Amino acid sequence: MSAVAEDRQVSQEAENKALVTAFFADVDAGRADAAFARLAPDVAFELIAPAPHGGLYDRDGLSRFFAEVMAPAMAGPFSVKVTGMTAEGDRVAVETVSNCVNGSGMLYNNRYHSLFVIRDGQIVALREYLDSAHLLAFIAG
């Protein structure tokens, strides 16, 4: 790879990491609309969890999942912090940890590993791994 091509790749990877960092900053600050605007309308968001909540979502489906499933379970703000990030080409791998309390007082403190694919300044794919049993217990209240 030439020095120019390598510099271009490093720059693109830095831009991709900045986009993912901004996505999580929006989520952490409760700016769901801003976070969802960073997703392509036909994003392929795969939540690795059992049915009925696990599966493949587009942006509208993911928005409905948060509005209809997660938001009613939350009794306080949802926070998420990035604990690690690596980028290569159009892919960004991220480790995060979340915190929230549900209506019965259960602390939701989950850890995630997410793989983002970025194209043309938008998130076009996202696969999220988490402790799905903890997620289901939180939703159930």
Characterise this structure.
This protein has 141 residues and is of the alpha+beta class. 40% of the residues lie in helices and 38% in strands. It contains four helices and seven strands, in the order H-H-E-E-H-E-E-E-E-E-H. The chain has helices at residues 3-28, 32-37, 59-73, 132-140; strands at residues 39-48, 55-57, 79-88, 91-101, 107-108, 111-119, 122-130. Strands 1, 2, 3, 4, 5, 6 and 7 form a seven-stranded mixed sheet that branches. Strand 1 and strand 2 (55-57) form a beta hairpin. The longest helix is centred in the first third of the chain and has 26 residues, at 3-28. The model has no long low-confidence stretch (mean pLDDT 94).
Write the H/E string, N to C.
Answer: HHEEHEEEEEH
What is the CA-CA span between the terminal residues?
53 Å
The largest sheet, given as strand count, sense and whether it forms a barrel, is: 7 strands, mixed
The class by helix and strand makeup works out as alpha+beta
- Tell me, briefly, the overall form: elongated
Overall strand count: 7
Helix content, binned percent? 25-40%
* Number of helical regions: 4
Radius of gyration: 16 Å
Mean pLDDT across every amino acid position: 94
Low-confidence stretches: none
What share of residues are in beta strands? 35-45%
